[in-house]
Amino acid sequence: MPAVQETVERVKRIDVDQYRYGFETLIDSEKAPKGLSEEIVKFISQKKNEPDWMLQWRLEAYRRWLTMTEPTWARVDYPKIDFQDLYYYAAPKPKKTVTSLDEIDPEILKTYEKLGIPLREVAMLEGVEPKPGEEDPARRKIAVDAVFDSVSVATTFKAELKKAGVIFMPISEAIREHPELVQKYLGSVVPTSDNFYATLNSAVFSDGSFVYVPPGVRCPMELSTYFRINERNTGQFERTLIIADKGSYVSYLEGCTAPQRDENQLHAAVVELVAHDDAVIKYSTVQNWYPGNSEGKGGIYNFVTKRGDCRGNRSKISWTQVETGSAITWKYPSCILRGDNSSGEFYSIAISNGFQQVDSGTKMIHLGKNTSSRIISKGIAAGKSQNTYRGLVTAHRKATGARNFTACDSLLIGDKCGAHTVPYIEAKNSSATFEHEATTSKISEDVLFYCIQRGLSQEEAVGLVVNGFVKDVLQQLPMEFAVEAQKLISISLEGSVG
Amino acid sequence: MALLEVKDLKVRVEEREILHGLTLTVNEGEVHAIMGPNGSGKSTLSHVIAGKPGYEVTDGQILFKGEDLLEMSPDERAAKGVFLAFQYPVEIPGVATMNFLRTALNAQRKARGESEYSTPDFLKKVREVSKSLNIPQDMLKRGVNVGFSGGEKKRNEVLQMALFEPSLCILDEMDSGLDIDALRIAADGVNALRSPKRAMVVITHYQRLLNYIVPDVVHVMSKGRVVKSGGKELALELEASGYAQFEDAA
Ligand SMILES: Nc1ncnc2c1ncn2[C@@H]1O[C@H](COP(=O)(O)OP(=O)(O)O)[C@@H](O)[C@H]1O
Ligand SMILES: [Mg+2]
């Protein structure tokens, strides 16, 4: 049997059920009643001890949401979601303010341990120090904010970050402790009226991370948030807000997993980034939500709005994403290049397998002079999946000297999947230079056989070829996560080759 | 001792029979040349021995060290010591040659239940061999065969042969696309690997290569069969009189 056909055969027997994070944590939780109403919005706000301005903000979003309809333009297909049949709030019990890791439900700690996420900063600090001059990436400090269902359960290295002046805390806490910052920036990049899911998120978001890096500060460690959906029928609506003040630098990573469930779960996050003059924000995502089983049952609906505002001159925002999970992905991390000489980057690896549907890409909105953007997208489709790159690059009338480079490459494994490229380009001034390259190729039988003849298994061969295909993007990830992402890529393709 | 025994092998590709009962025995330490016109089935034979998908064996058998080779997956065959140097080595973008060599070598060792090479041992070995083959170190940092010249690709094949230490090397048209100097370097590399425990099957269309890699036995293939076997002088004879005389014999 030819190698590709064999791959296809194996895809038929695909076992996405080997999803490794599919376990469920049995903990007591507190839920709001099912469905959505002003009462529920008030309930969430009250649970969070929010000030009145926050409640009003939510209610306004809720009322707006009632007038909106779901977008249908993406190349994804799913049954209508009954928004009244979801829980909008779930929190692990007992719900009290936790001040140290010891107060967290041990079951939750165990969950994060199983996921390999270092919540125990102590253990890390006590680890064997690498020899001088020899940097051990696994031991570099990473501050983690862990969000379990609707609630942030732990944030590590808070004290050390505070010393540097960096604020890193759950957004629910920031609303109480830094209302002036939150009020100033929340909704300033993604307005409450932006789109159906973002508006819904504005009404019901329950937690997420908040980061503020003061002028001139280089954040002393990687910041990261791990999201975990555990509860059944529960939507997760987290909200992340990152502000890099003048001349500051921050690198942030988000990771996501969910248990295996037969029903679909909704995830509608909003991420807002603001970069002032000369500031740099690097935002990386390793998304591994449950993708559904071999029949396409279950899995996460991932409808996410991510946008960065290069508000200051010479500011820079860089999105890197490795997308392997979710039944449906609808996601376009974007940059508004407002400041003169600002730049935006989008590096993406999107892998779809089984019955997954991915519609993802980016928007680069050039408003300032001499702004530049770069888009490198690598789509890999296997099984019966559909993988679409959708991108928009525009240059405003005043954006003289705007430059964009876009390269979209798609790789197909088998012949039941599809890859699509939908680029929109719009230049309103003649000095803009936009370059676009796109390729689609099939994984070659000859290349696979070459590797196998040298001793690699079929599966290792596919993993190797795919990792080579995505190398340009992997290199953009912080080193410790590049290794993780590389493994994840092989794991998520395992189903495609047996 | 017989290392490779091909007995009355019949092979089909897409319903068409390409090999019509081919028999060939190669003993340890021997170098065999297989010569024949284009389309006579030389590459097909090498692919079937290596286990490339897409070929249907309808009759006959292949024994390797007395074991049924056709029962093994292609990666198992590689781990057991079957190496095929391709006529057209493929490019693998984004995969550094060094990383590829190491991944492949360790995969083979693991399959044999041997321990992985340590980094220093591996590097030392690669450096030694690549030096003798005139392969610069920065070539090893590039993607596998990406942007390599024809000669570099072939030398990269010989480099792998030297690293993996297979007991059977099949070289498919190693001379195609090489100038004399490139051919000499590659052939020297191959000759350095001749050993009493290792056998080689050198597939070629032209006699030229056999001036550099001198065979013990020469076989002439025509229309899916071995039609004549003899000593190295058979190659010269062919050079002088051409393949036409065998067309009828087939
Ligand atoms: N994949 C294939 N599909 C169809 N015919 C093939 C295929 N591979 C080889 N053949 C045919 O088999 C015959 C032998 O080819 P090959 O083994 O490549 O010969 P050689 O290497 O001696 O030139 C040729 O007639 C060729 O057209
Ligand atoms: Mg040939």
Automatic annotation (TrEMBL), chain A:
GO terms for biological process: iron-sulfur cluster assembly. It comes from the Bacteria. InterPro entries: Fe-S_cluster_assembly_SufBD (IPR055346), SUF_FeS_clus_asmbl_SufB (IPR010231), SUF_FeS_clus_asmbl_SufBD_core (IPR000825), SUF_FeS_clus_asmbl_SufBD_sf (IPR037284), SufBD_N (IPR045595). Residues 162-218 form the SUF system FeS cluster assembly SufBD N-terminal domain. Pfam families: SUFBD_core, SufBD_N. Residues 227-469 form the SUF system FeS cluster assembly SufBD core domain. NCBIfam families: PRK11814.1, sufB. Belongs to the iron-sulfur cluster assembly SufBD family. This is Iron-regulated ABC transporter membrane component SufB. It comes from Bradyrhizobium shewense.
Automatic annotation (TrEMBL), chain B:
The keyword Nuclease does not apply. SMART domains: AAA. The keyword Lipoprotein does not apply. Keywords: ATP-binding, Nucleotide-binding. Residues 4-248 form the ABC transporter domain. It comes from the Bacteria. Pfam families: ABC_tran. One of its GO terms (molecular function) is ATP hydrolysis activity. Gene3D superfamilies: P-loop containing nucleotide triphosphate hydrolases. Involved in beta-(1-->2)glucan export. Transmembrane domains (TMD) form a pore in the inner membrane and the ATP-binding domain (NBD) is responsible for energy generation. Belongs to the ABC transporter superfamily. Ycf16 family. This is Fe-S cluster assembly ATP-binding protein. It comes from Bradyrhizobium shewense.
